[in-house]
């Protein structure tokens, strides 16, 4: 599994990803990250082949950040109750609530998700979806559903774990607050006069 525990978006440095790895922060330039993306096919191979290969860890980090950025843009652009993350959302949610009926998904932590008992329960849950593409892929998830990604609000989980929790957050309303906070401003049509003719343009 990738040893990069936390990744974050930073609005002051929009062209960089920031990665916390072994208690130190590193950054990856989005332009030069194409080197890692060209090798992304390697990530479909078993992790045991690579040991602690640093390049593979960086590729995991880039792909995880890509996924996190797309997902956050999605839940802040479309009301979460209208979203479907997979064709199997209903099945994933039903199975998740059968296996974890009392788990609150609004605020989570490593202590809640990675205790010995929780690890066993999640392993059994994940195996029910082992036909799903990338079901065990390392994925970045927000700890607190009401907040954006940050170093303090990021957890590294497997993909099916992410899907189960984020589908539950969408259905149960826990992603509504982040949608209200960060949804794009509505676009308006403005009319102005230029050389005696009226022109219209869209602005936010």
> Beta-sheet strand percentage?
15-25%
Number-wise, the strands total: 7
Instruction: Categorize the overall geometry.
Output: elongated
Taking the alpha carbons of the first and last residues, their distance comes to 42 Å
Order of helices and strands: EEEHHHHHEEHHEE
Helix and strand composition category: alpha+beta
Low-confidence segments, given as residue ranges, are 1-51
Return Rg in Å: 20 Å
Number of helices: 7
Report helical residue fraction.
25-40%
Taking the sheet with the most strands, its summary is: 3 strands, antiparallel
Major sheet: order of its strands? 1-2-3
Quote the average pLDDT: 75
Topology:
Blueprint lengths: L3 E5 L7 E6 L2 E6 L4 H5 L15 H22 L13 H11 L10 H4 L2 H12 L10 E5 L11 E5 H14 L3 H7 L5 E7 L2 E7 L1
Antiparallel strand pairs: 1-2, 2-3, 4-5, 6-7
Helix pairs in contact: 3-6
């Amino acid at each position: 599994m990738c040893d990069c525990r936390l990744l974050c978006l930073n609005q002051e440095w929009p062209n960089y990803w920031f990665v916390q790895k072994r208690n130190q922060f590193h950054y990856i330039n989005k332009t030069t990250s194409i080197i890692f993306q060209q090798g992304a096919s390697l990530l479909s191979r078993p992790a045991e082949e690579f040991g602690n290969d640093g390049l593979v860890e960086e590729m995991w980090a880039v792909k995880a950040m890509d996924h996190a950025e797309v997902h956050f843009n999605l839940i802040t652009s479309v009301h979460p109750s209208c979203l479907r993350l997979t064709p199997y959302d209903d099945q994933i949610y039903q199975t998740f609530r059968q296996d974890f009926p009392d788990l609150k998904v609004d605020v989570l932590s490593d202590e809640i998700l990675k205790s010995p008992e929780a690890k066993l329960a999640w392993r059994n849950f994940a195996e029910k979806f082992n036909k799903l593409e990338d079901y065990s892929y390392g994925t970045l998830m927000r700890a607190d559903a009401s907040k954006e990604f940050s170093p303090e609000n990021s957890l590294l989980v497997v993909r099916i774990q992410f899907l189960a929790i984020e589908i539950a957050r969408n259905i149960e309303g826990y992603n509504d607050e982040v949608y209200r906070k960060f949804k794009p401003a509505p676009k308006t049509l403005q009319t102005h006069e230029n050389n005696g003719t009226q022109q219209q343009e869209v602005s936010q």
